[in-house]
């Protein structure tokens, strides 16, 4: 019997790692794999109409306990059914349980599940596969899933509960254990960190896997470094002595576990042998379509996305892209702020601003900044009311009109965005032979997707009653600060997107500038959703040509200032040079000269230290109970400034935020229809989909301040010796970050979560990790950054791909659904709003790239200030809580992250009164 004819059902216990199992199959074999949720069917229906089609069962990891029927769903009655069948010598399908699945099998057969003496999440252990278990098969004619695997392998563990080996029933045999030691720490001490000094991705389309080959420590190393090790072992794997039932406590699907694919292959081989022995015949040789469609995510359309059919040609004939290189950048002049002011002085300019700013010139992640000061239309959306607002300029007027309507209950706003952009694929490019390959935004949507969009993207999530809005009158409101008082949904929409059809693309490395304009050759109006939202997209060819000529004339008249001057890091001198200059102080001085910012103005947290510390403690308790692995707890700091003009916000962005935190994913977004402005300096990419259909995510978890101050001793050593000491201590900090168990655990948990998310929207076995926990060094910090990539599926586009992975796992924790529900409670059901969401673009597709399809690039909203129509400034901050977290240290990190955005005396005065004594001296940016 051919292996690919085996039919496997995976029961997902709402874990954030289940879909990583699919990466252990070849693509050609996935058509016979179905993944269902544990509450997708009632047991009786599942037993009669679903289970008979399959040859074996995999029970996934998940949060909770096996004793809790809600945590297991139909897994509970399934295991009891299997146990009864075996007790009466009847046929029961082969099973493989992982983590919670492992515990559930043990508990069903009579073992006890208890709290682990050492809670382990995102940590590697050496698994000891017992040799005597390999040779003693009992009465079973089958092998083991651990056959043909070395005696000691590294494996990732995520668990707070354990199966008590002393309570193991006679029918289950132990096959693997692990010592509760510090083997991973000792191995990392002898493994050099992966340093990305140039911060370069050598091949942005690479789908290779990175790996850290850690050598197990020697006995001598154990004796020197394991004083804190616990002198006992933990049960890691068992099997039924007679029947093909197996379980492992560790996670074979994790990126850091060795031989995970071999375990799946062994399970398939065992199933084949079992089918021959018992002459088992399932209902069908191949899964029928009605069974395949039961999968949470269809696994049938797994062709590469390059096979997407072209869009209807009647749309493409209407539009073209006019582009021209209007500045060659050879002299390095024309700073971004001057360009900003120049565009605002152009005819028709408004405060409807879309600026995606690659403010860090040395970064390889973004080569271009994109700037528009007048957009075709703006779309905002409220998830609670399904309310969409479309704002567009009135003809021959600087004012904007707004249409308001409600989406049908089953329609989702991102689905509309997806369908709208399908009108703009394979758009021809005019005026230039081709645009640069790395100029990925060609016009389209720029804006943000707020954290509360999880209500429409996170499967299984139900909006709590405490978050629902009772407002019934805001549909008729005119947008103004006074009329926004009754509804937070309107004050800070869950989604806000500008449609940009005329903009500048600035190459931040070369200084060259392209002017790009979408031309509507027929000037045909396209309706948005219904007749009340009628907007004009694109410009006449005459308008585009006039705009280009005007830009070129003005380019040579504006003042020229070096971009690099405002972005270069401050020089660090030793004590003997009596250096007193500080660039950050200069930025603060600029703020304090304005009467808008005075030392008496204080940002107030939604949750202060006395409330935040108990929330951290409760998160740690829930982790210990197995309810979650990692909780990204946050809060907001707020201040109402009364008067903040659009001009002052632009000055604040350029003179302070951009200067203090130059980032490849900075942004300034202004939405006049709502009075909302977003000022962001995020360093973290959430998701990019490039022209080749490669999806990339770059989670950041793990940060430490760099050694940047003078390192002279009491006696002045001189500049050369000071520099040597500084570099030596800075390198040591990078090594400490690399080998820090807590930081690595946070990063690995999110990497595995991101891989799981991408497996929903990519071809599963193309999901890889080209960079795993590399140390990236910025001006002020070292960070642990990983890169995860996959090949987009044929039935997904960039908008659907983003929706399938939203909200960002680095802002929730894992497992995502259960943790988001926990966060709702811990954060008092206060909306996060823009913070924790993402900012970026969905680009139209043009005919000069190989696929002609839409592309996208979004960052995670961190290090960001949001200003609403009431002139209230809010800054979100938080941190990942694990079982190893120290509450005081976590709170200190929150307030210091806030200071990194607004380091004025106002925040410092608050920090001085709320920081615990153990606060570090340098901000963790």
Structural account:
It is a single chain. With about 900 residues, this protein is of the alpha+beta class. The chain has two domains: about 5-180 and about 230-290, Class I glutamine amidotransferase (GATase) domain (Rossmann fold, 3-Layer(aba) Sandwich), CATH 3.40.50.880; about 325-695 and about 790-915, Anthranilate synthase (4-Layer Sandwich), CATH 3.60.120. It is built from 25 helices and 37 strands. The strands form four sheets. Strands 8, 14, 15, 16, 18, 19, 28, 29, 30, 31, 32, 34 and 35 form a 13-stranded mixed sheet that branches. A hairpin with a 4-residue loop joins β36 and β37. α12 runs antiparallel to α22, α17 (about 585-590) runs antiparallel to α19 and α21 (about 740-760) crosses α22.
Could you give the topology of this structure?
Blueprint (H helix, E strand, L loop, with lengths): L7 E5 L20 E5 L5 H7 L6 E4 L9 H4 L2 H13 L7 E4 L1 H9 L4 E17 L1 H5 L16 E12 L8 E8 L3 H7 L5 E2 L22 H7 L7 E8 L4 E4 L11 H19 L10 H4 L20 H4 L2 E9 L8 H9 L8 E5 L10 E5 L4 E6 L4 E7 L6 E7 L6 H9 L7 E2 L13 E6 L4 H4 L30 H4 L3 E6 L1 E6 L5 E8 L5 E2 L6 E2 L5 H15 L7 H5 L15 H10 L11 E2 L3 H16 L5 E11 L5 H15 L4 E7 L4 E7 L2 E5 L4 E4 L2 E6 L13 H21 L1 H21 L6 E10 L3 E11 L6 H8 L7 E2 L1 H11 L11 E6 L11 E6 L3 E4 L4 E10 L5 H15 L3 H10 L11
Parallel strand pairs: 1-2, 1-3, 3-4, 4-10, 8-31, 11-17
Antiparallel strand pairs: 5-6, 5-7, 7-9, 9-10, 11-21, 12-13, 12-26, 13-20, 14-15, 14-19, 15-16, 18-19, 18-34, 20-21, 22-23, 24-25, 25-33, 25-37, 26-27, 27-36, 28-29, 28-35, 29-32, 30-32, 31-32, 34-35, 36-37
């Amino acid at each position: 019997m051919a292996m690919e004819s085996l039919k496997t059902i995976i029961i997902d216990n709402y874990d954030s790692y289940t879909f990583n199992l699919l990466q252990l199959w070849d693509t050609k074999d996935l058509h016979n794999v179905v993944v269902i949720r544990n509450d997708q069917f009632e047991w009786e229906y599942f037993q009669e109409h679903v289970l008979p089609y399959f040859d074996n069962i995999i029970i996934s990891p998940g949060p909770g306990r096996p004793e809790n029927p809600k945590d297991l769903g139909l897994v509970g009655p399934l295991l009891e059914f299997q146990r009864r069948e075996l007790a009466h010598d009847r046929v029961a399908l082969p099973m493989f349980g992982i983590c919670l699945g492992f515990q559930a099998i043990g508990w069903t057969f009579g073992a006890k599940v208890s709290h682990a003496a050492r809670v382990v999440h995102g940590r590697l252990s050496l698994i000891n596969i017992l040799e005597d278990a390999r040779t003693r098969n009992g009465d079973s004619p089958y092998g083991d899933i651990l056959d043909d695997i070395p005696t000691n392998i590294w494996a990732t563990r995520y668990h707070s509960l354990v199966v008590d080996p002393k309570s193991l029933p006679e029918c289950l045999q132990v096959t693997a254990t692990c010592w509760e030691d510090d083997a991973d720490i000792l191995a990392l001490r002898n493994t050099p960190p992966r340093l990305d000094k140039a911060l370069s991705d050598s091949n942005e389309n690479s789908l290779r896997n990175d790996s850290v080959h850690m050598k197990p420590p020697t006995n001598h190393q154990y004796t020197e470094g394991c004083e804190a090790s616990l002198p006992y072992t933990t049960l890691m794997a068992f099997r039924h002595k007679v029947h093909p039932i197996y379980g492992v406590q560790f996670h074979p699907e994790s990126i850091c576990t060795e031989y995970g694919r071999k375990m799946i292959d062994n399970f398939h081989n065992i199933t084949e042998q079992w089918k021959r022995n018992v002459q088992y015949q399932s209902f069908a040789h191949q899964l029928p379509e009605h069974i395949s469609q039961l999968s949470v995510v269809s696994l049938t359309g797994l062709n590469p996305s390059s096979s997407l059919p072209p869009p209807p040609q009647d749309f493409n004939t209407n539009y073209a892209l006019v582009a021209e290189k209007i500045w060659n950048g050879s002299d390095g002049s024309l700073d971004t702020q001057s360009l900003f002011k120049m565009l605002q002085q152009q005819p028709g300019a408004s405060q409807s601003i879309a600026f995606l700013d690659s403010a860090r010139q040395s970064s390889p992640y973004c080569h271009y900044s994109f700037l528009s000061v007048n957009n075709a239309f703006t779309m905002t959306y409220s998830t609670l009311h399904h309310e969409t607002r479309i704002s567009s300029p009135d003809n021959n007027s600087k004012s904007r009109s707004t249409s308001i309507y409600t989406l049908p209950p089953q329609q989702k706003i991102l689905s509309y965005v997806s369908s709208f952009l399908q009108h703009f694929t394979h758009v021809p490019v005019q005026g230039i032979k081709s645009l640069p390959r790395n100029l990925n935004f060609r016009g389209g949507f720029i804006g943000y997707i707020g954290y509360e969009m999880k209500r429409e993207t996170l499967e299984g999530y139900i909006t709590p009653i405490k978050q629902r809005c009772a407002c019934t009158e805001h549909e008729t409101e005119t947008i103004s600060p006074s009329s926004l008082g009754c509804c937070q949904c309107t004050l800070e929409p869950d989604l806000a997107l500008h449609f940009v059809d005329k903009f500048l693309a600035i190459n931040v490395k070369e200084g060259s500038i392209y002017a790009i304009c979408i031309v509507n050759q027929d000037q045909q109006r396209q309706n948005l959703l219904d007749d009340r939202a009628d907007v004009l997209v694109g410009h006449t060819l005459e308008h585009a040509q006039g705009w280009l000529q005007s830009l070129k004339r003005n380019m040579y008249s504006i003042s020229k200032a070096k971009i690099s001057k405002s972005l270069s890091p401050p020089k660090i001198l030793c004590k003997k040079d009596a250096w007193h200059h500080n660039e950050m102080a200069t930025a603060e001085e600029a703020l304090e000269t304005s009467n808008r910012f005075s030392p008496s103005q204080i940002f107030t947290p939604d949750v202060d230290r006395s409330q935040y510390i108990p929330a951290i403690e409760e998160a740690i308790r829930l982790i210990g109970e197995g309810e979650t692995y990692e909780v990204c707890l946050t809060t907001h700091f707020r201040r109402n400034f009364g008067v903040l003009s659009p001009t002052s916000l632009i000055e604040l962005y350029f003179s302070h935020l951009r200067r203090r935190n130059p980032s490849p994913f900075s942004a300034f977004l202004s939405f006049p229809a709502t009075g909302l402005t977003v000022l962001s300096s995020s360093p973290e990419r959430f998701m990019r989909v490039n022209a080749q259909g490669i999806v990339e995510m770059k989670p950041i978890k793990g940060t430490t301040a760099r050694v940047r101050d003078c390192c002279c001793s009491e006696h002045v050593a001189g500049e050369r010796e000071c520099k040597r000491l500084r570099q030596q201590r800075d390198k040591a900090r990078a090594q400490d970050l690399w080998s820090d168990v807590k930081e690595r655990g946070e990063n690995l948990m999110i990497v595995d979560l991101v891989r799981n998310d991408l497996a929903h929207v990519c071809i599963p076995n193309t999901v890889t990790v080209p960079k795993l926990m590399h140390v990236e060094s910025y001006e002020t910090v070292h960070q642990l950054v990983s890169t995860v990539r996959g090949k987009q599926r044929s039935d997904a586009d960039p908008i659907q791909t983003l929706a399938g992975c939203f909200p960002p796992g680095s802002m929730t924790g894992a497992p995502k659904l259960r943790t988001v529900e926990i966060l709702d409670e811990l954060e008092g059901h206060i909306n996060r709003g823009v913070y924790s969401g993402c900012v970026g673009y969905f680009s139209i597709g043009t005919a000069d790239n190989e696929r002609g399809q839409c592309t996208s690039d979004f960052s995670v909203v961190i290090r960001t200030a949001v200003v609403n129509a009431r002139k209230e400034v809010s800054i979100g901050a938080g941190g990942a809580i694990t079982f190893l977290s120290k509450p005081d240290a976590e709170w200190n990190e929150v307030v210091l992250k806030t200071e990194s955005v607004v380091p004025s005396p106002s925040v410092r005065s608050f920090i001085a009164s709320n920081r615990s004594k153990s606060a570090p001296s340098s901000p963790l940016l």
